[in-house]
Amino acid sequence: MSLPLTGPSRPPASGGKPTSLVVLLHGLGADGQDLIELADHLAPLLPDTAFIAPNAPEPCDMAPYGYQWFSLQERTPAVMAAGADRAAPVLAAFLETELAARGLDARRLALLGFSQGTMMSLHVGPRLSPGPAAIVGFSGALVAPERLAAEHRSNPPVLLIHGDADPVVPFPAMAAAASGLATAGIAAETLRRPGLGHGIDGPGFNAAAQFLVRHLRQPG
């Protein structure tokens, strides 16, 4: 069962009309509340940016609470690709609606994902036209890398951040994702976080914030 995408949001800290939108995509078994607090830390750096953190479309089938973008009970590449494909139109439609509501297009959009949210960011973002201004992925992976070169419609700048002690999504997934993106002509910066497990630490967050500021700053 898929649910309409809703979740917590934050208006621009400046109090004015947003000039950009950051969409925060949570991981398996979490919800939008899991990431929306990142907006409170990013807002002083991006005062004209709106933030929203939607709940994924399905109740999590591996926990009594939380949501999932697709099931991970079976983690073969084919099953994961099929799951991402099912969720992609739901997320793309949500992005289109939220951008239109703010008078923006995808060139003023950034996606920030964690774990399965990173998988969705990397699956949907490059297939948008126009593409997003930036994608940041923590502790994630690229689903169906062999298809991206033929299916991507944009080349957004990407930053991948991953702990080298991650017990959930193995650290080599970062290099594999960067390689798959590069094959499609999408440049990805990578940041290894020594000793970090499946999470976001201060240096990783700071790097993400600087990346978003760089790509969302209005020319002027």
TrEMBL record:
GO molecular function, one term: hydrolase activity
Signal peptide positions (record): none
Domain Phospholipase/carboxylesterase/thioesterase, first and last residues per copy: 15-214
Keywords per UniProt: Hydrolase
Entry's family note: Belongs to the AB hydrolase superfamily. AB hydrolase 2 family.
Name of the protein described by the UniProt record: Phospholipase
Organism of this sequence: Aliidongia dinghuensis
